[in-house]
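Consider this:
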Amino acid sequence: MAVLSLKRQAGWGMRRALALGCALGMAVPLHAGAAEAPVSLCFEDTMVYPWITGEARGLAFLELGLVEKELNLKFEYQRLPWRRCLLEVQLGRMHAAIAASYNKERAVWGSYPTLADGSLNRELRMHTDSFHVYRRVDSPVRWQQQRFENLGSQPVGVQLGYSVGKNIEELGYPIKSARSSDDLARMLTHGVLQVAVLQNFEAMRLLNASPSLRKLMVEEGAPVKVADQYLVFNTAFFEAKPALVKSIWAALEKARKSKTYLDEEALRLTHESRPR
């Protein structure tokens, strides 16, 4: 009984100390006491240069590593096909998906950083990328003023699960999905597709890696869209731990603006934007 009494007194003492610290405006660490359980994050299993370049490699992981140090927490990563990754977050089996752009379907089950008026808080994004139309050099298809010309009933190639596919469908065009940008390039090369939509820097990587592609495919017109990419959380997880999630989003902004990150980003983007 004496031991139980001492434990109770110790518990009350801890709670009083925390309460007193808050009352005095002292900063109580987010993960004081027992360590916060690891936050599980999934990412797509194909190359998306320079953000995701392999198993937990790329600028996205440099950014997330800086967040881990800033907040003294641990991320656990799982590499999955992109549509499966989003499904795992939707079902709550993963806490968040790395580098997901916004669309209404994802917002049904996912939480993005927002401002007081409910609009997206762009300052808390991971990065920004753009999506461009690439066509076969010998194709009559053109992309002008957000519309295709001479496409007929041919499908537009997109990566499986990418939100830009939904954008293309909303414009009234059929799509044909492929697992990776490399697959889309092969489909263009073999004439399976006349046109495909690729992310900007990833397309540059493909063209630099295979110079012969420059004779077969060419960028066409203005971007289909420019998209901010976020760390999107399962809404139930966000509602259970709003302080933790908001601290991660805030730390992402700090990491993205850090000299460490900016220097590496400049190096990688300059490298791939230079034709070889």
In short: The chain has two domains: 39-127+228-273, 131-224. The domain at 131-224 is CATH 3.40.190.10 (D-Maltodextrin-Binding Protein; domain 2). The chain has a mean pLDDT of 88. The CA atoms of residues 225 and 265 lie 21 Å apart.
